[in-house]
Amino acid sequence: MYLELQQQLIQRFHDLLKRQYDVELPRIVVDQPPNVGLGEYALPLSFELAKKLRKAPRKIAEEIVAGLGPVPGFDKFEVAGAGYINAKLNREEAARLLLSERSKHQGSATGKKILVEHTSINPNKAAHIGHLRNSILGDTFVRLLQAAGAKVDVQNYIDNTGVQVADVVVGFLYLEKKGKSEIEALIANGSTGKPFDYYCWDLYARVSQWYEEGKENLKLRLQTLHNIEQGGNEPAEIGTIISNAIIRRHLETMQRLGIEYDFLPQESEILHLHFWELAFEQMKQKGVLYFETEGKNKGCWVMKRASSSQNAKRQPAAEGNDAPETKSGPDEDAKVIVRSNNTVTYVGKDIAYHLWKFGLLGRDFGYQRFYRYPDGRLVWISAESGEPDHPHFGSVNTIYNVIDSRQADPQNNVIEAIRGLGYIEQAENYHHFSYEMVALTPRCAMDLGYEVSEEDQKRAYIEVSGRKGFGVKADDLLDSLIAAAQKEVDSRHPEMDEQERRGIASQIAIGALRYFMLKFTKNSVIAFDFKEALSFEGETGPYTQYAIVRATNIFRKADLSAEEILAGHTDLRFLKEDDELWELWLRAGQLSSIVEQCIATTEPAYAAKYAFQLAQQFNNFYHKHHILTETDEARKRFLLTTAAVVRRALIQSLELMGIDAPSVM
RNA sequence: GAGCCCGUAGCUCAGGUGGAUAGAGCAUCUGCCUUCUAAGCAGAGGGUCGCAGGUUCAAGUCCUGCCGGGCUCGCCA
Fold first, then answer.
1. Given A88, A136, A259, A613, which is the most exposed site by the fewest CB atoms within 10 A?
2. Burial code of A519-548, b = ≥16 C-beta within 10 A, e = fewer?
3. How far is the CA of A440 from the C1' of B6 (A)?
4. Is it the case that residue A316 has pLDDT exceeding 50?
5. What is the pLDDT of residues A189-228, one digit of tens each?
6. Which chain A residues in 245-284 sit with Cβ < 7 A of strand B?
7. pLDDT > 50? residue A309
């Protein structure tokens, strides 16, 4: 509601400026006045026009208001302060619009097909809190895009032929002295007493330690890596077995949080289906790659780096002397794509993969069914020779890669390669959805029993490390959250049966976890702290869930359905007199505006803030107006409608974040 | 050395493309459960927005330079 009216307003002002002053502003800024009594929209445009038109801002504002005439949906326009124009909505009309809204809005992404890649955990160990941030951000962004009308393919890239998998293969072969069948048995019966991903978590840390004990050990690693890349040998088979088992564990972990995928493209197929060769041809042809004959990169195929700042190394020339320093010799800053031993680097493979995403490679994966969710949704995985009947992924125009900020450099290399190939539009629509890492506070690390050096103890946070086995596992955290929530639910609802209580505890735990990962903006490092993460009070997911439950309880007690209230008649004139109630309606009407803002800025945190603030306003309302004892029937009906409108917006805002609204709490 | 990010209340963080009086949660203190559930509400204290310049009607927000912290820069993946 809010967004549509704002767009109409902007159009109106745009037309008026053209007609009355013959000016066009690049954009018309719309703010909100400090309080809703002043109006719903504030336009500071007369300040901007003051210089252009050589008039006082206030004068301009008055002229504009005078020339505006009636605008549908609006009651009046007022000049305020030094020259703001405040627009006041017709509250009843706007409220009617809000009441009639469907749940999904026709957003900016309507009709678009978009590919989002997230999670992409190396398949050699259990998922940890850092991975959770990735998956929760990614999954929430998928939901936001869908809310804006997009059709979204969700991909989880699997690096199943990299060193990380090789390390665990080495662990099984040389530390545990286990062969293929023993590993298969281990996966099948779980005889170790811990899940396979947990088992590998520990083994991976042990192997990393073991490498430091001798150079021969590192040789085994390299050899195993080569075997895996090549395929068709025992280490490669073991690698596949491990990778598949771990991927299943990751899917199960993420499923607990309501996170699902459509397709798992694997590096093994990028290698074996020779994606690189096709990309290599294109890149040579278009001159994106060149063969270096000198310097440290002699014998390699290299690519000019986008960020390579030629100016950086140049000393400013002497005054008045503009001697251009002609670059002679090799560009030592270039990015190596093909090594002198003729093998391709990770970035090279990534370029090929991304050409495929945009449908520019001229080759496709094979597809095989891999996993089925309870709701019937299928996860497909790449394969050399796939099933004959399969959906097609890729060939989209817009992609989002949810990858942490440490990979900004390689991501930019891929984008530059695509741009260099002449795919300008695709390069523009390639979004590196970058976010900062999750780290542990020193106290948290010590509580977990890790040794923390004195130096590290002074730091604000310590980076988690799968290699060292240093971190909080996703399943462990979720288990702790569920246990904590269960305790609360048990004490509040002893009358409910065990399974029901467990279900609600799980919804609360997921709400707490997902909200926790979303409340911080992407650029802020999360210094993980159990006390905060396990909290259900204050700015948390359960706070918003609780507000919904309170609203639900009103309808339950009154034996009414919130949906019927929304559909029925209500007297909206109460909105005229009460700014606080109107503010609640207005805020509820801003949901689609928030969705668009989240997408435009790739920042899901705005949705989290919105949900919390709306819940806060609702709790305030709940406390102030005791609905069921209201004696004025018309007013009671109106308050019920208010609760229903806000409840609906709260539920929708939580849906965007993948958080359920429990029936009771 | 270069690039990216961060620095706002005791702590953790918000402050969309500059806009009206800098906010929230936690923590501390004071009130509020015979009411639609207190996982809640109301109130109090707490700020040189890292420092210094600049841009303009207007700067926490933009520019420059410092200071402090993090990450990244390999013929690893």
1. A613
2. bbebeeebbbebebbbbbeebbbbbbbbbb
3. 17
4. no
5. 766 778 999 999 999 999 999 998 888 899 999 999 999 9
6. 267
7. no
Query: Residues 554-573 of A near strand B (Cβ < 7 Å)?
Result: 554, 557
C-alpha span between A395 and A356 (Å, rounded): 7
- C-alpha to C-alpha distance for A664 and A507, rounded to whole angstroms: 11
| Confidence category of residue A101, pLDDT binned at 50, 70, 90 | confident
Amino acid (one-letter) located at A292: E
A309 touches strand B (CB under 7 A): yes
The reply to whether A48 Cβ lies less than 7 angstroms from strand B is yes
How far is it, in rounded angstroms, from Cα A202 to Cα A15? 66
Consecutive H or E run containing A66: helix A57-68
The reply to whether A303 has its C-beta less than 7 Å from any atom of strand B is no
A453 touches strand B (CB under 7 A): no
Report pLDDT digits (tens) over A68-80.
889 999 999 999 8
Q: Is the CB of A343 under 7 A from strand B?
A: yes
Q: What backbone phi and psi angles, to 5 degrees, belong to A46?
A: -70, -25
Of A51, A28, A44, A29, nearest to A84 by C-alpha is: A44
* In the predicted structure, residue A319 carries a pLDDT above the cut 70: no
Each residue's pLDDT tens digit, A543-558: 999 999 999 999 999 9
C1’ B40 / CA A176, Å? 55
Task: Calculate mean pLDDT across residues A291-316.
Answer: 69
Spell out which residues of A between 175 and 194 contact strand B, using CB within 7 Å. none
| pLDDT tens readout for residues A163-182 | 999 999 999 999 999 999 99
The answer to whether residue A308 scores a pLDDT higher than 70 is: no
Is residue A38's beta carbon less than 7 angstroms from any atom in nucleic acid strand B? yes
Q: Report the distance separating Cα A247 and Cα A156, nearest Å.
A: 10
String of DSSP letters for A127-193 = -BHHHHHHHHHHHHHHHHHHHTT-EEEEE--B-TTSHHHHHHHHIIIIIS---HHHHHHHHHH-TTS
Average pLDDT, chain A: 91
Cα–Cα dist A162/A402, whole Å: 20
ipTM of the complex: 0.96
Q: Is the CB of A336 under 7 A from strand B?
A: yes
In this complex, which residue's CA is closest to the C1' atom of nucleotide B18?
A29
Whether pLDDT at A570 is above 70: yes
pLDDT at residue A459 tops 90: no
**Total residues found in chain A within this entry:** 665
Helix or strand holding residue A592 (H, E): helix A591-600
Please state whether strand B lies within 7 Å of residue A330 at its CB atom.
no
CA Rg value for chain A: 29
Say if strands A84-89 and A113-117 run parallel, antiparallel, or are unpaired: unpaired
For strand B, give the nucleotides within 7 A of a protein CB: 1-6, 12-21, 24-27, 35-42, 57-58, 69-77
Which H or E run includes A303?
strand A301-303
> In 3D, which of A191, A158, A174 has the Cα closest to residue A235?
A174
